[in-house]
Amino acid sequence: MAPLIVAVKSTFEDLQAGEHDRVRSTWGAGFRGKALLKFFISRQTHRQGMFNTLPSNESNSYTPKSDEYILDVPDERNSMVKKVRGICKYVVDKVCSHVLIVDVLHNVDVQAALSAPYEFADYAGDFSPRYPGEAPEYVTFFDQNKMPVVMEQCYSWARGDAGYYLSRKATAELSFNTPSVSQYVVGSQDDVWVGQVLGPDIVNGDFTGVQLESVTDSI
């Protein structure tokens, strides 16, 4: 049994820029034999008549390596909510206890990630300045066009740039929640969406949320 899956959010652009090889040769090597590290990229099929087809381009002809997995969702960074939902669908079918979701453009402190007390939580990460389980608050975000978007009932969320842990039970909850605009504001903010789906469960005591220090830093 692999107790922890390290899910690395990535894109074909990141792959072509050499980010997967960079991770493999640096912090990714530290998880060898301790956790299952997987890069998640995407290519979306399109319906043509009775069949799902892929456009002819380099990314759609790519054969993934053993530590890579291709999701059938958009690959752009402004679609990270759908990518994380796809990661959750992958994890829920695996024999594991938790998944740590990080971005390929960040460095992970392997020792901090493995020693963090995530095992007792369904949702763990850096929620600062708020904490998991707090009542929702009025929050204003800015969308991709820098226009203000208001969420009147916004639950706290674990910051995606810090890395966050989800239990297998939490991934099941997220797998069956269709992303909606009111829940995640813009499609790139997967961390906000996760917080809105799991927030009510934590407040009600059905799930456990835990505040942790960041396990990443930007490159």
Describe the structure.
With 219 residues, the chain is of the alpha/beta class. It is built from seven helices and 13 strands. It has helices at residues 12-16, 19-25, 80-92, 110-115, 168-175, 181-184, 190-203, and strands spanning 4-9, 36-42, 46-48, 51-53, 68-71, 98-103, 106-108, 123-125, 137-142, 148-154, 164-167, 209-211, 216-218. The strands form four sheets. It has a seven-stranded mixed β-sheet with strand order 5-2-1-6-11-8-12. A two-stranded antiparallel sheet has the order 3-4. A two-stranded antiparallel ribbon has the order 7-13. A hairpin with a 5-residue loop joins β9 and β10 (148-154). α3 (80-92) crosses α5 and α3 crosses α7. The longest helix is centred in the last third of the chain and has 14 residues, at 190-203. It is globular and about 45 Å long. It starts with a strand and ends with a strand.
Tags for this model:
Spore Coat Polysaccharide Biosynthesis Protein SpsA, Chain A, 219 residues, 7 helices, 13 strands, alpha/beta, two-stranded antiparallel sheet, seven-stranded mixed sheet
Strand order of the largest sheet: 5-2-1-6-11-8-12
What integer value in Å does the Rg equal?
17 Å
Strand count:
13
CATH topology name, in short, is Spore Coat Polysaccharide Biosynthesis Protein SpsA, Chain A
Number of separate domains? 1
Portion of residues in helices? Answer: 25-40%
**What ranges have pLDDT less than 50 throughout 5 or more consecutive residues?**
none
Helices and strands: which structural class? Answer: alpha/beta
H/E series: EHHEEEEHEEHEEEEHHHEE
What overall geometry do the principal axes of the alpha carbons give? globular
Please summarize the sheet with the most strands: 7 strands, mixed
Q: Count up the helices.
A: 7
β-sheet strand percentage: 25-35%
CATH architecture: Alpha-Beta Complex
Mean pLDDT: 88
Q: CATH top level?
A: Alpha Beta
